[in-house]
Amino acid sequence: MFTLLHGLWKYLFQRDEYCILILGLDNAGKTTFLEQTKIQFTRNYKGMNLNKITSTVGLNVGKIDVGSVRLMFWDLGGQEELQSLWDKYYAESHGVIYMIDSDDRERLPESKLAFDKMLGSESLEGVPLLVVGNKQDIENCMTVADIKDVFNESAPRIGKRDCLVQPVSALQGTGINESIEWIVQCVKRNIHRPPKRSDIT
């Protein structure tokens, strides 16, 4: 009887929790993406002024609830000296959002280098990957097709995992809902990384 009641309690009062890494070079818009996500998915959350966000030094953490799913975001600093810390979080992650600054053609090769190094980690094998082409609101920025042309070389490293390139303007909020809905679907069906359980609060 106790086991039955305990199971019912877990079903009613706990959520499946998934940890999502937000990676990419500094100034790609990772923190703006996280703040905009919290604004769109959390009732009464006002957040910080998106125009005054500066480069992350270390780690930002955020969470949102989407139905019965809780997403815990780890937004990691993208400066070169901080990229060496990324792999400390890989084993605990259920998905990766990799941000690209669509308005910075000059640093695209640098971004691809960091991307390929990330994909080389066995700890991320099979983990769903959302590649976000951010800053699509800026005139003459790179399109998704432009980004794919450069990143297609990485296809063998991506393998059979779920992967999508999504155009987004984190500042304006366009493409955020589609991004989150996609990552939720992918982490839920990825049987190789079962969710954690968290109390509904």
Give the SSE map.
Layout lengths: L1 H12 E11 L5 H12 L17 E8 L2 E8 L3 H4 L11 E7 L6 H12 L9 E6 L9 H8 L3 H4 L4 E5 L8 H14 L6 E4 L2
Parallel strand pairs: 1-3, 1-4, 4-5, 5-6
Antiparallel strand pairs: 1-7, 2-3
Features:
Rossmann fold; 7 helices; 7 strands; 201 residues; single chain; 24% strand; alpha/beta; seven-stranded mixed sheet
What does this entry look like structurally?
By secondary structure, the protein is α/β, with parallel strands linked by helices. The chain has one domain: P-loop containing nucleotide triphosphate hydrolases (Rossmann fold, 3-Layer(aba) Sandwich), CATH 3.40.50. Helix content is 33%, strand content 24%. Strands 1, 2, 3, 4, 5, 6 and 7 form a seven-stranded mixed sheet that branches. The longest helix has 14 residues, at 176-189. The mean pLDDT is 90.
